[in-house]
Model the fold of this input.
Amino acid sequence: MTGLIVTLVVVVALFGVAISFVLTRFLYICQPNEVLVFSGGQRASTGGGRKVGYRIIKGGRAVRIPLLETVDSMDLTNMPIEVGVQGAYSKGGIPVNVHGIANVKIAGEAPVLDNAIERLLGVDRARIMQMAKDTLEGNLRGVLATLTPEELNQDKIKFAQSLLVEAEDDLRRLGLELDTLKIQDVSDDVNYLDSIGRKQSAEVQKKALIAEARAKAESATQVASNRQQTEISKIDAAISTARARNASRMADGQSRGGALVAEAQGQVASLLARAEGELEVQKARVEQVRRQLAADVLEPARARKAAAEADAKGAASQIIEQGRATAEAMTQIAGTWREVGPSARNVFLMQKVADLTRIVMGTVKTLKIDKLTVLGGIGGTGGGSGVIGPELTGRLIAASEQIKAATGVDLAAALRRPPSP
Done:
């Protein structure tokens, strides 16, 4: 039993050694930056479905079939290539020199990887780099013919992108990929780019001078504006100070005016009070004078008035009595006149002539009359040696009017009336 166990252990050990030997000789592990190509056997390609005599392992492991397959490795790392052309004609016929750097690698994906396996498997890495360089320089000359020196010099990124587009198809046919392309230098042997540079430099210098002049002008303008603002601020401050002073003066004036007005009002109130007091005094004086006048003037006047009224009443009573007596006398005279008849008129006139004569003689005291002549028109014609002039006639008329006023007898009217039959 023990021998059997030992035999089994030995067999297992030998089998393990054999397996390890096989794995060591026939197991291949693919690194991330490489591709393993197992040649032998037919299989369909992943790119287009065509039959190929290899299989590809990328980033993994696989076991080689002994005696039926061989294994080759292809490096996928970048290959830096210096690309440069001399005297290549650009658009416009200007020869230029271009120098750049490109990073090229073997494609890691089908179907470009199939092209790389068919064309580059087993080829030396230096040879692959030379092939890529020749392809890129040919494409570079083709791209230069489509761009002017100004475009080459001003926009190198556009130039590199144009080159990538131009070279991509050719490199893919070789199984290569262009990762990056940088144009490092563009020059020419006829100093065309230098003249462009000088022109651009002059333009830049011109723009710089213009910008500097504008900056100086703007600075001067800003300084002037700041100075203007400063002066305006000073003027505004002076105006504000003057306004404040004026306001203070106005307030002071108003306060003084108020004080003066108050003082004047006080004086006026004092004078008014004094005047009111004086008015009361004057009213008292007026009342006193009124009472004094009433005592000294009004009462005596009233007394005189009453006396005058009494005298007037007495005189009026006398006149009334005289009028009544006269009326009675006249009534009696009229009755006698009617009783006497036509001769009464002459008798009456002769009675009045004596009174009339006295009245007339009273008015002309200095006149000496030897003889009185009565003019015609008073009850008949008369004559005499004396003649009465116009002045005397006027006096007679005045005397007649006085008699009429005193007695109510109109002598002229009585003389003009004819005697009743």
Q: What stands out?
A: The beta strands are 27-29, 34-44, 51-57, 61-63, 70-75, 79-89, 95-106, 176-187.
